[in-house]
Amino acid sequence: MRCKSNSIFLNIQYLCEKFRKNKKVIHIPAYKANAIDVTAAGDYYAAGFFYGLSKNGSLEQCGKIGALLASNIVETVGTKLTEDCWKIIKNKTNEILN
């Protein structure tokens, strides 16, 4: 099944509308990280944010998941996280969403 760019656009449009209605500033604290390579940090943040959105997370939860993923990838050279790292991320993500 292919994802059409319109579905992503509509999700972004939905988020923007939600922000406008709430008129609330949400502060997402950064996770401490020993940054050695920022390659893919934005991609991982977006992936985490959209994952949270797909699980009906609040904007704050989505931002926290995005920050979690980004903080992990900047501690890695390249763009691939280890299986152990993904297990930790999965547990922390479940904590954020629950």
Blueprint (SSEs and pairs):
Elements: H1 5-22, H2 41-54, H3 59-73, H4 83-97
Helix pairs in contact: 2-3, 3-4
Coarse morphology: globular
Can you count the beta strands?
0
Quick one: biggest sheet? none
% residues in beta strands: under 5%
Number of domains: 1
Report on this model:
- There is one protein chain.
- The relative contact order is 0.15.
- Helix 2 (41-54) runs antiparallel to helix 3 and helix 3 (59-73) runs antiparallel to helix 4 (83-97).
- This protein has one domain (28-97).
- The protein is globular.
- The protein is mostly helical and 98 residues long.
- The chain has helices at residues 5-22, 41-54, 59-73, 83-97.
- The chain contains four helices and no strands.
Short description:
The chain is an all-alpha fold and 98 residues long.
Provide tags for this entry:
single chain, 4 helices
